[in-house]
Specification:
Elements (H helix, E strand, L loop, with lengths): L11 H13 L13 E5 L2 E5 L12 H15 L4 E6 L3 H6 L3 E2 L7 H4 L2 H6 L4 E6 L2
Parallel strand pairs: 2-3
Antiparallel strand pairs: 1-2, 3-5, 4-5
């Protein structure tokens, strides 16, 4: 069953809690427009990052719904591929259609993001072609 998300902007007082949760999870807290997921656009490519599901909502498909909403956003911007780095969720993203790729296969614009260089040595690089 595919769950649907209702994307609502966070109230100002909620944003601090979101940032604190991301920092506590060791994830970047910038570029997170709504909810627990971020998407950086780089022309026809994108980078998915900072996807977090609160512990009581895990294993219910919410993480997959968050990723699907961000993928829809990338498609709306005519992106053809989404790249990500993950240190611990390779199976989760693999189940959503992402495949491991070599760091050298990542476009320069995506590789140029600060987080990419910092995490690439210890993380799996994955890609999903969406268009």
């Amino acid at each position: 069953m595919r769950r649907r998300l209702l994307a609502l902007p966070l109230a100002a007082w909620e944003r601090d809690g979101l940032k604190a949760a991301l920092v506590k999870a060791g994830l970047p807290a910038e570029h997170v427009p709504v909810g627990f997921g971020g998407l950086e656009l780089h022309g026809t490519d994108a980078r998915l990052h900072s996807v977090v599901t609160l512990p009581p909502l895990r294993e219910l498909g919410m993480g997959a719904a968050i990723v699907a909403a961000l993928e829809d956003e990338a498609r709306a911007h005519r992106c053809r591929a989404i790249y990500l780095l993950t240190e611990s969720q390779r199976d989760f993203f693999g189940g959503l259609g992402y495949a491991t790729c070599a760091p050298g296969d990542v476009p320069d614009a995506v590789r140029g993001s600060g987080q990419f260089d910092r995490l690439c040595a210890s993380a799996a690089v994955m890609v999903k072609h969406i268009g």
